[in-house]
Write a structure and sequence with these properties.
It is a single chain. By secondary structure, the protein is mainly alpha-helical. The protein has one domain. Helix content is 80%, strand content 0%. Helix 1 packs parallel to helix 4. The radius of gyration is 21 Å and the shape is elongated. It comes from Caldalkalibacillus horti.
Length: 182
């Protein structure tokens, strides 16, 4: 099996896991929408709460689920895009497999970053709505903490995933620095 074939299989597996994770998040979002009630909230705050639940609980899981189905259906195309610079005749089998696995981990990290980043985005929307509403009695410290708690890991996953996917040659060279390329 060549590295790009292993990469295509892995991308399809990531697509499957992404669809399942998006479905779980969607079920949780529907559950939150059904259970959300006003409890005497100011109208602007109620709108912000429901909008953030809609974006984070319905819209984002649907988009990410669609991405998962795309990875599942087009794994070969995605693998060709990520492995177009490989020359299989000159590449060591272990190096090629490690490089494919590194790109696979990178794709998984990029897909995984979408959930915490979308949560951070809905927190920002919620904070902005709270701060613009008159007479808001709620502190935004907890929402800011929640934003940073989701934004920082999401950005680390995104940047690490992009590096592993597109610029991982340095790590491959480091991992195989003592071996000759065949």
């Amino acid at each position: 099996m060549k590295g790009n074939q292993a990469l295509a299989i892995g991308i399809k597996l990531i697509g499957c896991v992404t669809v399942v994770y998006a479905l779980i998040t969607l079920i949780y979002g529907v559950y939150n929408i059904v259970l959300s009630s006003n409890h005497g909230m100011v109208e602007e705050i109620l709108f912000a709460q429901r909008f953030s639940i809609f974006v984070g609980g319905l819209a984002v899981p649907v988009v990410i689920g669609a991405l998962g189905f795309y990875l599942l259906a087009a794994g070969e195309k995605v693998a060709k895009r990520f492995s177009k610079d490989w020359s299989f005749e000159n590449e060591n089998m272990y190096r090629q497999t490690f490089s494919a696995a590194l790109k696979l981990v990178g794709v998984a990290m990029v897909v995984y970053c979408l959930f915490p980043l979308s949560t951070a985005l809905t927190e920002i929307i919620y904070i902005q709505t709270l701060s613009s509403s008159s007479g808001a009695i709620y502190s935004t410290d907890q929402q800011l903490f929640s934003f940073w708690k989701n934004a920082v890991p999401g950005l680390v996953y995104l940047l690490g995933g992009l590096y592993f996917t597109f610029r991982g040659k340095g790590l491959v060279s480091l991992a195989f620095r003592g071996e000759n390329r065949e």
